[in-house]
Description:
Elements: H1 3-11, E1 16-22, H2 28-43, E2 54-61, E3 68-75, E4 80-87, H3 90-113, H4 116-119, H5 121-130, H6 149-178, H7 188-202, H8 212-236, H9 250-255, H10 265-271, H11 290-307, H12 312-323, H13 328-335, H14 339-342
Helix pairs in contact: 2-3, 6-7, 6-8, 7-8, 8-13, 12-13
Amino acid sequence: xxxxxxxxxxxxxxxxxxxxxxxxxxxxxxxxxxxxxxxxxxxxxxxxxxxxxxxxxxxxxxxxxxxxxxxxxxxxxxxxxxxxxxxxxxxxxxxxxxxxxxxxxxxxxxxxxxxxxxxxxxxxxxxxxxxxxxxxxxxxxxxxxxxxxxxxxxxxxxxxxxxxxxxxxxxxxxxxxxxxxxxxxxxxxxxxxxxxxxxxxxxxxxxxxxxxxxxxxxxxxxxxxxxxxxxxxxxxxxxxxxxxxxxxxxxxxxxxxxxxxxxxxxxxxxxxxxxxxxxxxxxxxxxxxxxxxxxxxxxxxxxxxxxxxxxxxxxxxxxxxxxxxxxxxxxxxxxxxxxxxxx
Length: 343
């Protein structure tokens, strides 16, 4: 087998999925139909990287009456899709849930096809290297993988935690440069941890018209605005910067052991493991050329020095579009600006 064939075969890794059941036993026909629907869904997702997709399936029988519930939570690179359907027959509940999920996938793919990133030739070339082989024929062993939809959200947050901190750090640096924030007054991790807590408490209330990653960044910008207002009000009242100032709900936070300016132990433990995983030490064959990465970073750094002289809105648009890679409509959703103004 040639090296090229080996690389191609290695790139065809499967998506993972896991199954959680409650009050269900046996049902061989249900398992067969479930596997068939999972594999059919996988065919719709093959252009996503293998590690960017996971499907959580929860099947439950109502203990008091003949009613079955199928809940599906699909993690994609920039989205989390959740559908939940019930029926008097388990197979019917599964079919209804997968049909609804496939419609949601079609909507996401339709929006993505309009994005500039998906239209680029280089993007299409990279897709050939990361194309997945669909879902694995069997779910993960019992007990492995996320055990509920919120755990899927946690996995999604883990993937972007460092990226969000870096984004906040750059914003704070700009604000310190312009004098809108005192030096070292805001901890970037504290901003992100506040947003993480809010997401985990209210993940079911995500605005339907927003993607998950867009929602996270919008919440980050809202939290940054809140903190800027707080320090501006302190400055207007001529209070010392280091004087203790509490939000109305901060007493509850402190009672619960949470300080928004300090990292939560649980979040640090969940999102930033101390030990580097072995897989992170293995070169990624799909990673960009190091020379190209250096050149791109140098260009971005030069542009960011120029950006220091721009207005806040101009800086936000530049950072979100050119650094974070959000589309014009997504930037508009994050910043609250009109799309024409973003352009």
